[in-house]
Amino acid sequence: MERIGMKEAWRRSSGPRDIRAASLLALKGFCMGVADIIPGVSGGTIAFITGIYEDLLAAIKSFGLEVFGRLARRDIPGALAISHLRFLLVLLCGLTVAAVLMSRIMHHLLVSYPVFIWSLFFGLIIASILVVGRSVGRFGAVEVLALCLGAVGSWLLVGVVPVVTPEAFWFIFFCGALAVCAMILPGISGAYILLLLGKYEFITRTLKNPFVDGNLLTLLVFISGCVVGIMSFSRLLHYVLLHFRRPSVSLLTGFMLGALRKVWPWKEVLETRLVGGKAVVIREANVGPDAFGGPFVLAVALMLTGFALVMLLERLSRRDD
After folding, report:
1. Which range (140-149, 223-232, 275-284, 309-318) has the least confidence?
2. CA-CA distance, 218 to 169, in Å (whole number)?
3. What pLDDT is stored for residue 39 in this prediction?
4. What are phi and psi of 160, to 5 degrees?
5. CA-to-CA distance for 169 and 219, rounded, in angstroms?
C-alpha cells in the first residue's frame, strides 16, 4: 500500500483548489447556515441551487469503511487522501460563521418583521423551485407523479401539529437520525422535524446545560443518531440521484413546492407553546395581506430580491463550474 506524507495527502483530498473556489464554497456554506436558522427552510435547498448538493452527498459518503479502516491502522495521510475533508472543512467554516453571526439577528428579524423575512424566503424558494425543476429536463409521467408526491407530502408535513413523545434513548437516537436527514433534504427543516417530534425544547435545553443530570449522555446518543442518519441517508440519496436522477430531482422539487405553505408571509397564529421560556408557534393559518399599502409593496420587493439572489447564486455556480 502506498505511503504518502500529510502535505501530499492534503493535496489529494477532494476540495477547492484555489482561494477563489474556497471563498465561493464558504459563501455557499454561509448561505446554507442562514437558511438552516430559519424554521421551515432547509440548507439543503441552498446546496441544491448552488450546485453543490451532490458534492455534499459525495463528501459525506467519502467517510466510509475504507477511511475508518486506514485510521484504525494509523494511516492518517492515507485516510485524508481518499476523503473529501477539504470540501467539508471549507463548507463548515461558512456554516459556522452563519450560526455565530446570524442566529440572533435572524431571530430578532423574524420576531420583529416576520412578514418581510418570510417574503424574502418565499421569493428565494420560488426561484429555487424553478432552478431545480429546470435541471430535471423533460417531465414525463413518472416525474410529474414524483413532483406531486413530494409536494403533497411536504405540504402535509409542515402542517402537522407537534406531539408528545418519550424521552427514552432509543427515541432520542431516532430523533437525531431523522432531523439530520431532513437538514440535507431541500424544503424540509431539521429543527422543524424536532419540533414535530416534540423534542425541540428537550434538545435545546440539553444543549444549554450539557453537564447537568446526565445530559451529556443524552447528547452523545443524539449525536450518534445524527452520525448514523447522515452517513446512511447520504449514501441512499447519492445512489438514488445517480441511478434515478430525474424522478428523484422531481421529488425534491416537490418537497420545496410543498414547503411554500410554511414560508407564506401572511399568517394568523392559532396556537403557541412555551419552549425554553419563549412562545413558539405550534399552529398557524395562512391568510391574505391586511392592506396593499407600503408594507405590502416592501414585502413584494423582498420576494423579488430573494428571487434575484437565487438566480445570482446559480449564475455564479455555473460560472465556477
Report:
1. 275-284
2. 7
3. 60
4. -70, 140
5. 10
- CA dist., res. 260 & res. 119, Å (int): 11
Count how many residues are written for the chain.
321
Neighbouring residues of 135: CB distance < 8 A, sequence distance ≥ 6: 249
- The secondary structure element, H or E, covering residue 182 is helix 169-183
Q: What is the DSSP string of 136-164?
A: T-S--HHHHHHHHHHHHHHHHHTTPPP--
Other beta carbons within 10 angstroms of residue 279's beta carbon come to 11
- Grid cell listed for 182: 431532513
pTM across the whole model = 0.71
Cell numbers 446526565 label which residue? 214
Cα–Cα distance measured from residue 126 to residue 24, given in angstroms and rounded to the nearest whole number: 23
Cα 22 to Cα 16, 18, 71, 129, 238, distances in angstroms: 5, 6, 26, 26, 23
Residue 31: burial class (beta carbons within 10 Å; 0-12, 13-18, 19+): buried
According to DSSP, residue 272 is labeled E
